[in-house]
Amino acid sequence: MNEKTSLFFVTKLKPQRQTGKFKKLKSIAMEGVIVTLVIFSVLFGIVYVITTARHKEKMALIEKGADPTLFKRQQFKFSQYNIFKYGLLLVGIAIGIVIAGIMDEVHLINDVAAYFSSILFFGGLALIAAYLLRNKLDKEN
Asked: Which of 23, 98, 110, 115 is the most buried (most CB within 10 A)?
């Protein structure tokens, strides 16, 4: 007889049968939790190794007499071309998503293949267009 004892009362539990679907759902949920934990553990490990390696490298250079101002981070400068290039890339990706949605609705191609191929194709076209437009603007100036 199964009994569950609490601080205030004792209850009798009936044995319950678990169906195959419940066990499958429970194992799928546990797999998701385990995968999530592994991903975050790996990310933490990578960040930790990079941070400690940089620190050790800096300390070794300081011990050898290097100037500590060498370790200051440089400010990232946005150029007009980079902003233009990334803007065209995002527009190309958006066009790729729209085209893939249309192809998926019409059932021309598998949905996953449509999205991946369209995003990569139109994103690449946008980068090529940015390169050609930059060359054209450089020749004019």
From this structure: 115
**Is residue 57 a contact partner of residue 66, using CB atoms and an 8 Å limit?**
no
Instruction: Write the Ramachandran bin of 55: left for phi over 0, alpha for psi from -120 to 50, otherwise beta.
Output: alpha
* d(C-alpha 2, C-alpha 20), whole Å: 23
Dihedral (Cα; 4, 10, 14, 16), 10-degree rounding:
-30
> What span, in angstroms and rounded, lies between the C-alpha atoms of 27 and 46?
28
Helices (H), the chain: 20-63, 80-106, 111-140
- Residue pLDDT, tens place only, 69-103: 777 776 666 677 888 899 999 999 999 999 998 88
Q: What is the mean pLDDT of the chain?
A: 80
What lies within 8 Å, CB to CB, of 109 at 6+ separation is 103, 117
Residues 6+ apart with CB under 8 A from 129: 88, 92
**Whole-angstrom distance, CA of residue 123 vs CA of residue 99:** 12
Mind listing the pLDDT tens digit for each residue in 96-130?
Answer: 999 998 888 888 888 888 889 999 999 999 999 99
